[in-house]
Amino acid sequence: MAPRLHFVAANVPEAQSALANLRQLYDDAGPDKADIVVALGGDGFMLQTLHAFLEHSKPIYGMNLGTIGFLMNEYNESHLIERLAEAERAEVNPLKMRATTVDKCIDGLAFNEVSLLRQTRQATKLRILVDGKVRISELICDGALVSTPVGSTAYNLSAHGPILPIDSELLALTPISAFRPRRWRGALLPHRAKVRFEALETEKRPVSAVADAMEVRNIVSVDVEEDRSTPMAMLFDAGRNLGERILTEQFQD
User: Fold this and answer.
1) Which of 154, 158, 155, 175 is nearest to 245 (CA)?
2) Is 43 designated active site?
3) Alpha carbon 151 to its chain's center
4) 242: pLDDT confidence band, cut at 50, 70 and 90?
5) Ordered DSSP codes for 190-222
6) CA–CA separation, 148 and 150 (whole Å)
7) Domains of the chain
8) Do 84 and 61 meet the contact criterion of CB atoms below 8 Å apart?
9) Which is catalytic among the residues 43, 131, 212, 223?
10) What is the pTM of this model?
C-alpha cells in the first residue's frame, strides 16, 4: 500500500509552486492522517518542519528548493512513491536547552546546535562546565556552541569544529573566535554529557543563546543536553543517506 503523504513548503515562490504541482499529482492526506511528511524548501525549512511535527513523530522527506540542501533530497516530481519506498531512514535526537536570564527560564530544542553569541562589540566571557565539573574557568570569545552530529556540518563546521559521523554518539563543543585560551579548539563529548555555560560580566558583556531558530537574549546561564525522548526521522534517497553525506563532507575541498 502506498504511503499517505502530507506536503508542506517554505514561503517562497519556487516552493509554493512545487507544492501546488505535487498536490495535483499526489493526494495530500493532511498532517494527522499522513504516514510521511514531504518538506519543500532548504535546510532551514527542514529544521522548521522537524520542530513543527515533533508531536506527530512522522518521518520527514525533504526535497531541496533552497540554497544548500544538505538535509534535503533532489527535487523531482516523478516517481515519488517509489523513491519513498526505497528511502533510507536516519533518526536524529535534538539538544535540550534551558536558558536562564535574570528573571526567567526558557526551554528550547535544537536539531543542529545550541549556540551562545556576544550581543555587543565586546567579546563575551564564559565559564564552561561538563557534568558539573568546571573545564574552562574563563573563555574569552565571540561565543561557543554545542552541536549534534546532524548540525556538525553547519555552523559548527564554519567555526572550525569537527564533523561527527551520524552514528558516533558524540557532541561537539566548539568555541567561536576564541581569544583566550587562544589554543583551545573545542572538545568531543559523549552524547550523555551535560554542558553548562555561565556568562561572566553580563552587564558589560551581554550574551544571547540560540537553539536552531529560537533566540534568548541577556542570558545568565545555559544548560544543554541531548534529549532522547523526542527522536525524529528523516528519509533520504537510497545511496544518499545522511551518514554518507556527512562522510563525503569530510573529503570536500
Assistant:
1) 154
2) yes
3) 5
4) confident
5) ETT--EEEEEESTTTS-EEEEETTEEE-S-SEE
6) 5
7) 5-92+231-249 (3.40.50.10330), 95-226 (2.60.200.30)
8) yes
9) 43
10) 0.90
